[in-house]
Amino acid sequence: MSTADPRDPHQDPSDGSGHGSDDIDAEFARLTEGLSLDSLDETPLTVEDVLSETPAEEKEPTIAVVATSVATSQALAGAIRLGREARTDGIDIPTGSRTLETRTGAIAVGELEETAAHDLAAIASTALQRNGIVLFWRRGDRMTATRYKGGERGEDISPAIVLGAVDDVVEELLLGTTAVDELEEGIDPSTVTRAEALAWIAGKGKRK
Asked: What is the pLDDT of residues 106-148, one digit of tens each?
């Protein structure tokens, strides 16, 4: 028969020794040794916190190049300005875009995310109705090339097929051997007025 008194709060009936609770306290202390209770005061992670974390892939730099046969950077900037005005879907000229001249035609470039890159190509090709253009886009090891004409997206093609037809600077930008900031300032199409756009497309005048 057990001699444990169930009314005695200091005695552990499991072994009759009276030290059971002490053993539990010691084990708890051992398990929690080195843990900071301050961490309990930290705000716990929420679903929004997890979803807002940027995947590693999206942290890689991006580059978009819209290759055209337009003669000057002024004319291409003007075309993009008027192309935005002509569209009815509300897409805008992506921030960070600029036009530059190359030996094979003016290009529009920017460190743009994929959706913004396609917006830029769609706007440019809206104004250049009869001239097809090619959008090159790269992030990390992924490089794509897409045809656009009349404001509409066309087929995706191998970048290697069309890179040979454009200035070497396009490939250098895509491969990262030349950075956008290393090139001339160029023209931000979003800052072009309608009057400037019309004049530049007609081949008259430059920005003062």
From this structure: 999 999 999 999 999 999 999 998 889 999 999 999 999 999 9
Give yes or no for residue 1 having a pLDDT over 80: no
pLDDT in tens, 22-46: 777 777 666 656 555 454 455 565 6
Q: Which three-class secondary structure state does DSSP give residue 202?
A: coil
The counts of H helices and E strands in the chain are 7, 6
Identify the residue whose tokens are 């004319």. 75
**Buried/exposed code over 8-46 (b: 16+ C-beta within 10 A; e: otherwise):** eeebbeeeeeeeeeeeeeeeeeeeeeeeeeeeeeeeeee
In this structure, are residues 201 and 78 in contact, taking their beta carbons and an 8 Å threshold? yes
Distance separating alpha carbons of residues 189 and 191, to the nearest angstrom: 5
Please compute, for residue 77, the number of CA atoms within 13 A of its CA located in the half-sphere on the CB side.
Answer: 27
146 close to 157: Cβ distance less than 8 angstroms? yes
Give the pair of three-digit tokens for residue 139.
């992030």
